[in-house]
Amino acid sequence: xxxQLRQLRTLxxxxxxxxxxxxxxxxxxxQAAVSRSxxxxxxxxxxxxLQRTTRHVSLTGTGTRVLAAARRVLDDVAHLHRxxxxxxxxxxxxxxxxxxxxxxxxLQRAWAAAHPQVPLMFVHCNTPTAGLSEGSADVAVVRxxxxxxxxxxxxxxxxxxxxAVATDNPLARRRSVRVADLTRYPVAIDSRTxxxxxxxxxxxxxxxxxxxxxxxxxxxxxxxxxxxxxxxxEATANQNPRPGVAYRAVxxxxxxxxxLAWWKDDPPAHLTELVTLACEAYRSGRPAAEQxx
Length: 293
Known about the structure:
- By secondary structure, the chain is of the alpha/beta class.
- It has 3 domains: about 5-85, Orthogonal Bundle (Arc Repressor Mutant, subunit A); about 90-160 and about 255-290, 3-Layer(aba) Sandwich (D-Maltodextrin-Binding Protein, domain 2), CATH 3.40.190; about 160-250, D-Maltodextrin-Binding Protein, domain 2.
- It has helices at about 5-15, 20-25, 30-45, 60-90, 105-115, 180, 215-225, 235-240, 270-285, 290; strands at about 50, 55-60, 90-95, 120-125, 140, 150-160, 160-165, 175, 185-190, 210, 230-235, 245-250, 255-265.
- It has a 5-stranded mixed beta sheet.
């Protein structure tokens, strides 16, 4: 016979209440049911856990250790229930670098108007799945399409690319730059979650030095110090201003596709509406001429 949660709850209740009778009142069961649960637990574990007298109940040495473990187990089970409950009462939106950039607030307002009882909570997680694999997000925005078959995704829109350079770099005096302008400097790249790879540079014009970074903060710190330049999405430029860093549009690179991803076998509630609202946010943020075209 396996240990049951009901038996562990009974043990905790008896110790906290002090007697079998009071524990029965707390649990809403009969005193006989309490006695049976404790007896079954002791039989399953093969050890006496409680010393019983007519007026008092006390723990044995083994019981003291089992009680501590029982409390941990019950706390862990309660945590599991909270995880499930939170998935019903809030929608966690993961991102690695910059959420949806200038579209983030538009989506938040639209979602809040449609679902005031289910807040859209943005969660930062610098991993390739932006929190999906780690369980910290229900949906995630990614700018590198996921190939993992466990996940499904929908294209929300595209974003322009921006260069990030130190404010005292000569490139900061320009309104826009070309990729080739950046190759004379070390280029900071986050190979796990960033949108820049060596393939972005023209053949024969790859940067001489690549500095590997592991977070947007590390990336920006290198650039502000003049130790590297970088290329990123316009969302990063919108949501991550940094003293010492200037963002300039890159003229000759393709736009960055933006996807919303989720667990294929466990899509969150209201997913279709969330995708629709996010797509609308991207469409409404495009210039009128671009929308018409």
